[in-house]
Fold this sequence. Notes:
The complex is a heterodimer.
Chain A: E1 18-30, E2 35-47, E3 51-55, H1 62-69, E4 77-82, E5 85-86, H2 91-102, E6 103-106, H3 118-128, H4 133-146, H5 162-174, E7 180-184, H6 192-209, E8 212-217, H7 220-224, E9 228-233, E10 236-241, H8 247-255
Parallel strand pairs in A: 3-8, 3-9, 6-7, 7-8
Antiparallel strand pairs in A: 1-2, 1-4, 4-5, 9-10
Chain B: E1 3-4, E2 7-8, H1 9-33, H2 35-42, H3 49-88, E3 91-97, E4 115-116, H4 119-127, E5 133-148, H5 157-161, H6 163-169, E6 172-182, H7 184-189, E7 210-214, H8 215-221, E8 228-233, E9 236-246, E10 261-265, H9 266-273, E11 278-279, E12 281-286, H10 289-292, H11 297-309, E13 313-316, H12 318-362, H13 364-372, H14 377-418, H15 430-456, H16 460-465, H17 473-500, H18 503-523, H19 528-543, H20 547-554, H21 563-581, H22 583-595, H23 601-613, H24 615-646, E14 657-662, H25 670-676, E15 684-692, E16 699-701, E17 707-709, E18 712-715, H26 717-723, E19 727-730, H27 737-746, E20 750-753, E21 784-789, E22 795-804, E23 814-817, H28 818-824, E24 832-839, H29 845-855, E25 862-865, H30 866-909, H31 911-920, H32 924-958, H33 961-966, H34 977-1004, H35 1007-1012
Parallel strand pairs in B: 6-10, 7-9, 18-23, 20-22
Antiparallel strand pairs in B: 1-2, 3-12, 3-13, 4-11, 5-6, 5-8, 5-12, 7-10, 8-9, 14-24, 14-25, 15-18, 15-24, 16-17, 16-21, 19-22, 20-23, 21-22
Helix pairs in contact in B: 1-2, 1-14, 1-15, 2-14, 3-12, 3-14, 3-15, 3-30, 4-11, 12-15, 12-21, 12-24, 12-30, 14-15, 14-30, 17-18, 18-19, 18-21, 19-21, 21-24, 21-32, 22-23, 23-32, 24-30, 24-32, 30-31, 30-34, 32-34
Amino acid sequence: MAFRKRTEDISAIDEADGIIQAQSVVKIYDTGNAKLHALKGIDFAVRRGEMVAVMGPSGCGKTTLLNCLSGLDDIDEGIIWIEGENLATMGDKKRTNYRARRMGFIFQVYNLLPVLNAVENVELPLLVANIKPSEARTRALAALETVGLNEWAHHRPAELSGGQRQRVTIARSLVNNPAIVWADEPTGALDSKSATDIMNLLRTLNEERGLTIVLVTHDAGVGEQCHRIVRMQDGSVVGEDFPTGTPSEIAHTALGTRPEPVGATA
Amino acid sequence: MEKLFGVPMQSIMVVLLAMLAICLLSVAFIAWRRPVIFKLGVRNIPRRKPQTILIIVGLMLATLIISAALGTGDTLNNSVRSAAVDGFGPLDELVVFDNNPDEDANIGQAFLRSIPQESIQSVRAAADGNDDVDGVAGVLFSRAPFVNVGSDGVPDPATLADIESLSQIAVGTDPGVNIAGLDQDSIDHIGGVDDLDGNAVNVENLGDTGIYINVNAADDLDAAVGDTLVFFVGNQPQTGVVQGILPESVITGAVSAGDPGVLMGLGRLQALTGQEGRISAVAISNRGGAEGGLALTDDVVDALEPTLTGADLGIVPIKQQSVEAAEFIANIFVTFFIVFGLFSIGVGILLIVLIFTMLAAERRAEMGMERAVGAQRRQLIQQFLAEGAGYTLISGLVGTGLGVAAAFGIAQAFKGFIGDAFDITPYVSARSLVIAYCLGVVITFLAVAISSWRVSRLNIVAAVRDIPDAYTAQRNRRQLVWSIVMIVAGIGLIALGNSSGFLAPFTIGVTLIPFGIAGILTYFGANPRVVLTTAGLLTLVFWLLPDQLFRDIFGDYTGDIDMFFVSGICIVAASTLVIVQNLDTILSLVERLGGRIKGVLPATRLAVSYPGANKGRTGLTIAMFSLIVFSLVMVATINDNFSAAFLNDKAYAGWDVEVEVSKENPVDDFEGAIASSNVDTSGIEAIGRVDHPNDGGNQFLNKDGEWGNLIVSAGDGTFFDTSDLTFQARASGYESDAAIIEALKTESDVMVINQSLADGAVADFGEPVGQIAGTSPDSAFDPAPVEIRTGDDAFHEVRVIGVIDSEFSMLFGGYIGTSTEEALFTGTEPQAVSYFLQTAEGVDPDQVAKDIEINLLPFGAVSTDLEQQMQDDQATQQSFMYVLQGFMGLGLIVGIAAVGVIAFRAVVERRQQIGMLRALGFQRAMVQQAFVIESAIVVILGVLAGAVFGLILGYSLMTSDDFTEGAGGDVAFIIPWTTMIVTLSLSVIAALLMAWLPARQASKVMPAEALRYE
């Protein structure tokens, strides 16, 4: 089984609790005139139920890493396993199906469809997964209630504030009960109050539902609320932090795990 | 082409050049005074190449359509004009018998009344010293049946005398070949004639049997130099040996384009026809060759006319008249093409507005930023104008070029069905190219300017934040002002319509008022959906009212061909408004439908969301498809119903075969002649005789007090009894069709006419038509007296007592009975006689026609299978309509291009959203489905609206009293299913393909890449 072929560096996360495994991931952007090495052989692993922040300066490859790990982008070298499956062997259709059933996404710019109202946006992943429309609507409303937006269910994105839009995005990412939620700068476009609310919400979901969350952020405050912070620079992982005295420790305690430093390259 | 819609083309070109210069100077001004703004605009052109190509394709279509329409006009004009100019060769005027100095000479006299051969000298004397005249020739015309017996020499007399023997050795036959007789002196006078091999014609060397034939006769008879031709004059066989083949021209016998002809010495033709010392006409050649002499015609006519009048001669500017007729024919076609092309041009303009509205939407944030940092509104307009000018100038060139290609294609199609009459040669004049280019560029430029002005009025904050513009009090006030303007304009137009009696201003006025009222009600808080839907529905009801109900309510108005376009615009505008106002309901139905199909709901949900969110864009696209489909369905409906009504069994009054015999070889006893020949007469049930007295030489005083040519046909009792004629209007005193028929057989001063001669008949494209005052085309009238000048210059008065149903569409002119014929044409032999045959069931009319033609060859009998003739007529009309529909189909290309532009823009606009959808689990196919379903909704709504309303209006027209009475009543409405299904399916498929291609491309992009897109 491919999962057993992990290198020693990431072997600390075994099949039972590992959900994301990446090895020697290389991503090159060919702009025609030049080749940009966005990811330079990254090893990375995340345990099931873990909340990991990827941090680093602009252009260091954080979003690229998230895109590659989630299967939104192809990689040039290396291997990525998600829940034990090699992404490279999945093919576009299977990978898309997998995203529909097992993943949720939160983007900095919300990426809600402006022509649909909040509940229609939220139920979209369920309709894609062939859930009955009536059931999809019930679950979408429930998801909106979870994020405190049930009263705004029939408003279009243009009629919502930034924080509300991001809550809709979170509701959408949760509605299909995903195994992993990927969040790219989820608080980047929000004021500090809204950002705190959103992070509290994510943390609660992680704690209560055991969601695995991988988020990319610039905000140290956001990173501090995660179990683990992976630091990147210039396309490489340059280190990890385990915030102490933070809710992450509590989370790890709850999980009964203590992640080892993994994927760090010199 | 010299005129378009009555305006000289030269003037149109000068005005358009001036407008183009203003457009270009505006852009030059921007480039000079606002170089930064200019660069900002122009740099957008190469920014997204595929989009630029689509825009250029979209913008060029208006130019293409104009260019194609003008090119078609040029081609037809040039071809018909060439036929006229080449046919007359060096001859510009004909001098004919004319003893009425008060009226213009009538060309028909050349074939009715000969003049003394000395007239040649008289004309030469009159032209002596006139530098504008360089030749005068005398010509005698006749006509005879010809048989080519090949190159084995002259047959023996027994063979010549026996038609069966002659038939056995015949290589080719033609029952009606014109013969022109000229002496060498005349030929030399007009500059000589060369045969196709370049040898000079010399009739003095022809001897007793030599003849020349023209190319048409060579084709018809399959004849070559050295072949012997047998022909019959005065029922006596004659022979001629072909000495050379000549080009087509009047002096080689081609009196009309395409006529087969023979040239022989004047003396021989005079002797054969017993007209020694007589000629038909004196031909005059002006200085300057075939084309150059034309300009001198008026001077020559003015100079010679006074001298000739005293000698019972008149001068006819025959080449000039033919050229003017060519212009007229070309103008009819161009009017058709331009009017129906207006639909496509209208669609093209909508597309231009759509393109620039979408470009503005794309750059809304940029424009908001520019406004925020101090750019004036006019600078935004200037920026768009600079960009638009770039697209426009290029697309104008491309469109003009492709228009020429389309005109050439149309010319090829024309060749297929009128190529027998004229040699269709594709030709587009430089002036037409300039006009098409200027008009296309100016239209596009104006559309860009208006679109730019609209988009420049953005709200800066809303634009920067990319949120919808809020309604402001100022904007509401503007709406109120516009609504009031619409009502005032509507009332003004209604008044104009009432005073002028024209339908267009009246109907446009009535259409504007409900929308004006709706605008005011909305301003005061009424539900826009309710009031605008009501206004739209009221407008549709008004436009689609049955004809009689419309007349009962609003009275009678005069409409012209332009009403097609006016009705199309108003109906489509109203229907689109109703659809857009109720789009949410329609879309929710579609969504419910999509929800029933497993796996399609997510794509359907997306597909129905975007059209509803962009109602302006959706409405424009629906309007584009509606407009073009409306026009196509209307034309197809009219065509099919017209064909069914007028080209049916009654067109030839139920007769199956027509046999026409000319006076040169009269048949004294037709029934006896065919009975004694090998024709099987057992299948012939009835034979009616129609004389054509003084054919081409009769005139009547029309309702404007002018003499117009009148075709008079005189039927015998059998003809009228068997034809079973019906009349759409009867004079008082003749209360039934039978009473009219009886009067025609017994009274000596009565005539019935076809509909186009009736007072108030549909005008023939604005040209003065001969109509008889006092006759009503569709109701009872008092017997209308009409003065007739017969070919012998005698004046008579007859009474019109009936108007023949238009269903008998092949009966032209006036019909009289034998009593009236004897009174009008006492002692004159008819110019030609037609024998109409009715055949028994199961008998092949074509075989009967062929048998009679071959057996009566010595009489030059021309037989026609009328059913076949009718089918040919139908085919010709269908072909023309297909060409017209093909031309109008260019509008569909505009619509399809519009879908392409919209889909391409939508894909660009939604790139990030596509990335997000793919991230959420949308498969590639689902993304494509969403785009295709979205386009399908819009396209199908447009197509359905256009087809339904086109059909309803077509039904209203085709079942109106005007049409049904014209067609003889009891007309079953025909829906043009074939055209509709083929055209509409193809257009929907093509449009969906245009939507699918960019969607497919976009769905292939990796989600991460799409999400990065800005």
